[in-house]
Amino acid sequence: MWNQFRNPELIGKITAKLQKSRTPMHIMEVCGTHTMAIGKWGIRRLLPDTISLISGPGCPVCVTPVSFIDELMKLKGVTICTFGDLLRVPGTKGTLEKARASGLVVKIVYSPMEALKLAKRKDVVLAGIGFETTVPGIALTIKKAAETGNKNFSVLPAFKTIPQALKTLLNAHDVHLNGFLLPGHVSVVIGRQAYDFLPRDYQVGGVVTGFEPVDILTAIHSLCMMAEQGKPEVLNSYKRVVSNKGNIAAQKIMNEVLEPSDAVWRGLGEIPDSGLSIRKEYSQYDALVKYGLEITDCEEKQGCRCGDVLQGKITPPKCPLFNTVCTPANPIGPCMVSSEGSCAAYYKYEQ
Amino acid sequence: MCLAIPGKLIRINGDKGLADFGGVRKEVGLTFVMDEIKKGDWILVHTGFAMEIISDEEAQLTIQALDEAYHVEPISES
Ligand code: SF4
Q: What's the total number of domains in chain B?
């Protein structure tokens, strides 16, 4: 099939340009889908030694703290609805999948609306994980629950927002970054302009980009140019999908139902204002309130270095458990569970 | 997990619609694209909600990429 975004000639040309680049670059790809695409296309092998790509915290499953799973497991007698990947993420007492065997009711849904439908008949808690791509749909579902007066439905919120996570990474002094590949589908909702703080406050550039090799290579090239010329900015090379302002209708519903709050990230700990909680007006749909739950920062499993991986401090193969004890078939940490986790992507593509 | 999947909108009914994902038809919420949507549009769908309207070319490209990256049906039934 015709595809300009995979044109080998074009890939060759951009790669040749990149090979000439001499400025040392540490570029973070924020989004798990980019991590997958970079592995799949062998992008790392096309780059000179001076350019390193570091995987970031952009996989919602991977940044979900241990205690979120632990709290869900307390919900006996309730139907827990979740998106697929979360099932195999270990909490302190094992995975949701295993807990099913001892009577926990867990159902995989493809849409939050499915969970709401189920709540016509029984008590349902939706595991509310996700970034700005996923959050508007859940917010809208809460609003629909309120409109229809459904009393059985609630959401355990562990929503995260990307811009604040980037700020935290930039504020941390042990990870030096000079450019970001910005997530495609999160940006559909928040828009290109949500990243304007990068050049303004941190003198770092970013490119919102798609998932094809030409998309990714061009973005890397732009970031190198910005660094060389000392002119950081935020470019949108995914205009075919992402706009400057994002999806206003989705933002509006998010703001109506949710408000900024502190959130616990696996590996990063609690970050002020980096999450979204359910507003008081909708507290009857907040599983934290309804069931008296609390999400806290707690210890990683012995030896798992997901925290360091998520912050770009180490690459997955540097974790002693990688491909020895920890494999996709027997994951120790969430970064190996999710198909978009850095450890899983390295396991599949980079060995 | 933030991946959105292209589907073709074949019916509109208020703030909901029916979209076709390579033969699998699913109900999708249209609230976030209400202002501009029309029947026959390609939409980028995430967890049952249309997040954006996209062009034919972009839809084909994404479908192809998904096929290769995941070797799975774009939407799996639970
Ligand atoms: S390889 Fe496994 S144990 Fe090591 S950081 Fe990744 S998920 Fe954790």
A: 1
